[in-house]
């Protein structure tokens, strides 16, 4: 299996300079691969525009797409919208009841001067004929996608009671080319794959991007020096710092502590891969595990007091948990012969993982309140690298499609899947970023 087999199948590689620059990244092509008919029906009417040049973004289209990939809502098809009210007074509720819509989103966009636009929207309960939200944004024309994601977040939270995660970002690695001509790029994009930006580029492999809790930095692994090394890159400034580069053995699998002050990593300079915690400011290392087995892929629990990691100390890869102060590790997965690559939801109640049986590797989610029982949210055959959205409602994972690597965004119940694929090359190693500041 690809990267999940402990992220350290690393041979010595030729020296190559890491290049961070303004090069344009390929956009991901986005397709809904699976939907759900039982989701809550909601109509998003095209927003009225008060004069001016055509806008570069259809705000209603973006909101509609956000809802459709959430698994919670089913947006009325744009072709089935027969009326286009832009204010509450214009709504004919009988029409939307006939169309069997529970909620209705309407809006309007006007020129605010200086390249800015004002976007106003309203959310209505169709059956109660009641206004639930009425908000506005003033933003640059070029940021209409961001405005649309924020509107979708507000509506999602109003109806479900859970904060929306559409106005977030994802990170992933692309590989374009073949053999010695392959170029690897670390990309940051909107949660739906739009607006990609190159954070780092290399002729050698880039692995394991991990977002800092405040979303300002990404830790990742690069092989540019001939061996693996862990770096932290500031997304806005482009500056980076070297965190772990022991020449003997591997330096891999970084994961941030909830307060952003530490990184958990897997280092093997002591003889075999062990879990360490590194203080980001001082770079002081604290060893957490001490076992003859392979210990790797650490992640902090949300309270910052424990680490969940992958180990083959029982013979095959399984998930274990230990205190950040070390001590005995407790095995937490028993279903399936292979469990690895843990991702923990924001509340610590769910753990996503790669579970393997035979030659099939699928993404499974374990609800910790129910023991080690899991539900599968991907079909296989080779799925990898799960990463939760900050609200736990969706997750990203990598998959193989023929000879290519693609990403999927899937609702946490597995009922809705969205495929994100490059027109040229592989995409892999996804990581869902934290909430942006409102």
UniProtKB/TrEMBL annotation:
Principal location class: periplasm
Start and end of every TolB N-terminal domain? 28-132
Gene3D superfamilies annotated for this entry? Answer: TolB, C-terminal domain, TolB, N-terminal domain
Q: Where is the signal peptide?
A: 1-25
Keywords, in A-Z order:
Cell cycle, Cell division, Periplasm, Signal
Q: Where in the cell is it found?
A: Periplasm
Pfam families reported in the protein's UniProt record: PD40, TolB_N
Q: Which InterPro entries does this UniProt record tie to the protein? A: 6-blade_b-propeller_TolB-like, Tol-Pal_TolB, TolB_N, WD40
The record's NCBIfam families line, in alphabetical order, gives:
propeller_TolB
Function, as annotated: Part of the Tol-Pal system, which plays a role in outer membrane invagination during cell division and is important for maintaining outer membrane integrity.
Q: Which PANTHER family match?
A: PROTEIN TOLB, PROTEIN TOLB HOMOLOG
Q: Report the sequence similarity comment from the record.
A: Belongs to the TolB family.
UniProt subunit comment: The Tol-Pal system is composed of five core proteins: the inner membrane proteins TolA, TolQ and TolR, the periplasmic protein TolB and the outer membrane protein Pal. They form a network linking the inner and outer membranes and the peptidoglycan layer.
Protein's UniProt name: Tol-Pal system protein TolB
